[in-house]
Amino acid sequence: MTCKGNSLNEELFQEALAENKCLRSSVLESVPQAFSSSLEVLTMLIDWCDDDWIFYINELFDAIKPLVDKARTPAIKDESALTKDVKIITGLAGSPSKRLSHMTSLESGTSRSQSDEKEDPWGDLNDRVKRLERLEVFSFDELQKLQQGLETIQEALLVLKLNSQVIRQIREHYQCLMTQYRLPALKEIKKGCEDSFLQYCRHSRNIEANIDAHQAQLNALLLLVKESKEMYNTILQYKTIQINKIYAESAHLSTRNMENIANKTKRETSSMHIITFVTLIFLPGTFMASGILEWPQVNAKAPWRLNKEIFSLFFGLSATITIVTIVVWMIILFMLRRPHSERVKYAS
Q: Per the UniProt record, which residue ranges are transmembrane (predicted)?
């Protein structure tokens, strides 16, 4: 008989042969005794197929349990209300209690406006970032550990399945040998080894039952690891999606802020244009009246009268300079705005 195993199996086998005197070749005096001895050695071999499996399964479970518990207990708030987030970002969020309402007082006839504070989109994003920080404990390394555990369990299931198959085939072979073959040499073996053969069959079935129990434990552990791996994948995908979503909404908020700044700058620029226009209207008259032209002195005690020639000269010069100044200012303003309009047209 050739038995393949490691050094531990060899040591245990040699100890069993040394301790059990019935297994020594010098003690065996007949064929039934030798056959019974071979069945006992075979029983010893199939016993090793069941040894220490319970400890191995417990070690696998202890190594995977922290990852499984972590995957089953994440505090994740479902943020499926995407429309709410979009409305907050775009400034369209507004329940009736948060919109600007106008109420007229019957006693005074005055109008009062009440408005609640709008939700701060940046504050909402900060809260969501803090919630995502709780998911930092879920890493890709732990997902790899779950995958390694999954592969180890599958290998163990394959070994148990092959062991059970080999034990069953050996038992069926001996059953066929003891029941179906009608050789004269087997009559003495059947008569002298019936008890040993029945004991071997019963023991092999017990080993198969234990192996089936180990397979059931590993199948349950395999299902648990698969579910935990799927949960890890889902959590990591959820974290990635939420991070991308926050980046997109943050960029949209920045764009809106830049748009608000641009609109504010545009309004201020319009106000400055109005001020400039008014200044240009009054500046020529002020300039002409500042002493650049000499007018005849008028006696303060003389009665007031309108000097049409002087007034016509002053008005003509002031109006002409004002018109020329406004035309030049409008031409310059048009030339400054033209490149911007061309860029907008080109972009569109």
A: 274-293, 313-336
Which DSSP string do the residues of 81-134 spell out, in sequence order?
-HHHHHHHHHT----TTTS-EEEE-TTT--EEEE-PPPP-HHHHHHHHHHHHHG
Q: Which two tokens stand for residue 120?
A: 């701060």
For residue 16, the Cα-to-chain-centroid distance in whole angstroms is 57
What does the pLDDT read at residue 348?
Answer: 56
Asked if 136 and 236 count as a contact pair (C-beta separation under 8 A), the reply is no
Report the domain count for the chain: 1
Model pLDDT for residues 78-111, shown as the tens digit of each residue: 554 444 444 444 444 444 444 334 333 334 444 4
Q: Is 303 left (phi over 0), alpha (psi -120 to 50) or beta?
A: beta
Residue 336 inside a domain? The answer is: yes
Other Cβ atoms within 10 Å of 277 Cβ, number: 13
Conformational region of residue 264, where left means phi above 0, alpha means psi within -120 to 50, and beta covers everything else: alpha
Can you give the residue range of the structural domain that contains 337?
A: 268-295+306-347
Q: Greater confidence, 191 or 63?
A: 63
Residue 73 lies in a domain: no
CB 171 within 8 A of CB 39: no
Rounded to whole angstroms, how far apart are CA atoms 320 and 54?
108
Nearest one of 152, 141, 143 to 57, comparing CA atoms: 152
Please, what is the average pLDDT of the chain? 73
Q: Are 31 and 188 in contact (CB under 8 A)?
A: yes
- CA-nearest of 145, 150, 144, 143 to 219 is 150
| Residue 341 in domain | yes
User: Does a structural domain hold residue 259?
Assistant: no
Higher pLDDT, 25 or 91: 25
Type of residue found at 190: K
The rounded distance, in Å, linking the Cα atoms of 264 and 92 is 20
39 contact partners, CB below 8 Å, separation of at least 6: 174, 193, 196, 197, 199, 200
* Listed residue (169, 166, 136) closest to 242, CA to CA: 136
